[in-house]
Amino acid sequence: MNNAGAKLATETLPPLLVGAIRFGLATACLIVFVRPPFPDWRSLLLIVIVGGPIQYGLAYTAYWMATDVSPVTVANQLWIPFTALFAFLILGERLSRAALVGMGVAFVGVAWMTLDAHALQDWKAILVAIAAGAAWGVTTVVARRTTSIPPLKMQGLLALGAFPVMAFGSAVFEHGQWEAVKSATPMVWASLLWAGIVSSVLATTLLFWLVQRREAGRVTPYLLVTPVVSMLIGWGLMGDVLTPQILTGSAITMGGVALVALAERGLRAGAAKA
């Protein structure tokens, strides 16, 4: 639902303003958890900068640029293969052949989906969504090695960092904010409340907790529901066009993502037995 809500909000409000409102709400809820000490401050700073204004700025910009919600949502799921890749590059974790195959399959799926005549009009938005996925992949990898920081504190810091940066970015680079706010419908405000409270405070905090304590293979099957629900909402309520090629490309992408997650699960299970 959050992806469809992002598209709904950015159809009325500028993307950086959407992010600022979201994290303003999240900051109000989580500020009580942000207090010293701040161990491993370099990792925290990377999480706050890359996982906050960079990742969400790119993601909201992608939905703002896109005609349909579905292709952008599917492309953004490449954050899971990116997580495995960055875990190899940053943490030195092993990358199996199955994971490499899964990465290749996932990227081929996104390429095939994008080459559809309808989806091709959103190719710029899809590229921006892939960049947002890469930024989130870096964030989750760094979060893995910061297990001493409680998830609510980590998400509070992310929100506290993202809010002023995105608000400043909106003030400098966007225009017509006040007129957009006045024209926002109750559904737009509901989507912002959902993003700021349910998604940022509850869902993302839970995700940080899971990546700190569980391998991606145990978490990813639940996350794969996200693009399916978003595509159904986009097709049923928002007028998305789902051609056979878009559906096939999406399925190939999700298959590759699942393969990456299962390969990592197998690696960690083998390591635990050893």
Describe the structure.
By secondary structure, the chain is mainly α. The protein contains 13 helices and no strands. The chain has one domain. The protein has helices at residues 2-10, 15-30, 41-65, 69-76, 79-90, 97-114, 123-144, 151-173, 177-183, 186-213, 216-223, 225-237, 244-273. Helix 4 packs parallel to helix 7 and helix 11 runs antiparallel to helix 13. The N and C termini lie far apart (41 Å).
Number of domains: 1
The mean pLDDT is 86
Please describe the biggest sheet, giving its number of strands, its sense, and whether it closes into a barrel: none
End-to-end gap: 41 Å
Order of helices and strands: HHHHHHHHHHHHH
Q: Could you say which structural class the secondary elements and strand pairing correspond to?
A: mainly alpha
What is the 3D shape? globular
Instruction: Indicate the low-confidence ranges by residue numbers.
Output: 269-274
> What's the alpha carbon Rg, rounded to whole Å?
18 Å
Number of strands: 0
Number of helices: 13
Helical percentage: over 70%
Beta-strand level of the residues, as a percent range?
A: under 5%
